[in-house]
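Exercise 7.
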Amino acid sequence: MREIVLDTETTGLDPGNGDRVVEIGCVELLNTVPTGRTFHKYLNPQRFMPSMAQAVHGLTDEFLRDKPLFADVCEELATFLDGARVIAHNAEFDIGFLNAELARVDRPPLACEVIDTVRLARRKYPGAPASLDALCDRFKIDKSARDKHGALLDARLLADVYLELCGGRQPGLALAVQATVATLSTIAQRQPRPPRPHTATPDELVAHQVFLAGLKEPIWLAA
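Solution. The predicted structure, written as tokens, is:
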């Protein structure tokens, strides 16, 4: 099962008002285990960075000026996401922004299955805070490197949160699965024994008659 944990940073909150994506971070999971493969891009939004957005992620106009446009990386992003289920925190926000960027370059919207970890958290812990910070605190996930938001950093943290929401870490599980597979393989390679005969031999029949003759008042003769 291939999944991509995804996060974005933007110039604001509404792509309909011209806000743009400035950073995309993705972490690949295979059977809920990080593979080490990532996708990470900073993007030139072709507009000035509002001070409120800059305060959130720290990305400045100067830093982003020489970064690629979304049109330059969309094919690489589509290839990385192809065939995977996408995991995102408040997924409507991230997917909405990416679909708006795709529309600007005349590409179709994302068609992958999407899981929203905010909804997962609220279903599992009704009434409890469901922010990424709050969930990291709940699961004791180290977020000391997170002085500001960052798409790849947040995607890595979310991957750990997602694993906890799905049932938590089981250190011995992988070894147990490997042992089971090895056992099944060994069983499959065993040669079946030839069937044992079920008919009594002449010697066994004689021994049985001698045994019956030695019984006193067997119950099947009482009638």
